[in-house]
Amino acid sequence: MKHLLALYTILLLVLFALPISAQETAKPNKGEGVLQFLKRFNRTKPFHMDKFIELNQSKLDKNNNLKLGVTYTLPPVNNEGYEPLFGEQQAKYAIDSDELNGACFYLVSGHGGPDPGAIGELQGHPLHEDEYAYDIMLRLARNLLSKGAKVHIIIQDAKDGIRDDKFLAVSDRETCMGQPIPLNQIKRLQQRSDKINELFKKDKEPYRRALFIHLDSRSESKQIDVFFYHYESSTKGKHLAHTLQEVFNRKYDKHQPLRGFSGTVSPRDLYVIKQTHPVAVFVELGNIQNSRDQQRFLLKDNRQALANWMCEGLIEDYKSYSKK
Ligand SMILES: [Zn+2]
After folding, report:
1. In angstroms, what is the span from residue 97 Cα to ligand 1's centroid?
2. Contact 5, 43 (CB under 8 A)
3. From the CB of residue 98, how many other CB atoms can be counted at a distance below 10 Å?
4. CA-CA to 322 of 20 to 30 Å: which in 3, 169, 214, 290?
5. CATH architecture entry for 80-323
6. Res 23 pLDDT > 50
7. Ligand 1 centroid to 118 CA: how many Å?
8. 133 C-alpha to center of ligand 1: Å?
9. Which of 108-117, 163-172, 174-183, 265-274 comes out lowest in average pLDDT?
10. Residue 271: helix, strand or coil by DSSP?
């Protein structure tokens, strides 16, 4: 009896464990191509095809054709991604479109590690530029991934995911993809540029863009909201900067018609956009030391909106190239 109970327990455990780990498999019919085979199992999206080839590479012939009698692993019906940097609540994300397939992004939030960037203050709370820029960058990364892009998160904080707080706790944990960030400004900028260039060499996507996100500004003027900078001789950088600006103009007109909006696009001789090999844009989303701008960063919905708008601009820019 004891043995039987133990056996049942094992059996139950196996049965419960199975659906979690088991991947669906199937054998092709005679004459069936990959597309037909996947269609038979309701997998008709481009990511199903990509995933299928990735999962079954060794079982396909050299032209990626199916072999009769071989059992193939089917890709999951819903494409889901996982990025622990987004934090426990947000780590899982659905890839719900493939409009950014073929696009690769290098996302950099300004400062980090021993350098907090600009420091504002509100109601006794310190507002560090690097923490707010990081949160917006993560939100943007998640948006881009959900649309099928490849994303490299260059500045990382192993503990801070996407946060909804108004006052983001400060830390100096940020790294440049695992490497400690040096305090020296030139070394710090060189480190992130080198990292991007190293990845850029291996990436094969036809469209690759680097984005540097800051929440400070050297301007004293209260009239100007957002600055988009590109490298002087980069026409593609200029194009992206203008596309982003147009989206921001449109959004501000719609959501804050009374306030108006002015963003400027200009070339600027900045180390990071000069040194990085992918086309790059440097954006200053406002100034965290400016009391009016602080509102833009304090509310999670506003940080999400900024990420959404940048995502929209990046999609538009990408599409304008893929059409040609
Ligand atoms: Zn900055």
Report:
1. 32
2. no
3. 15
4. 214
5. 3-Layer(aba) Sandwich (3.40)
6. yes
7. 6
8. 9
9. 265-274
10. helix
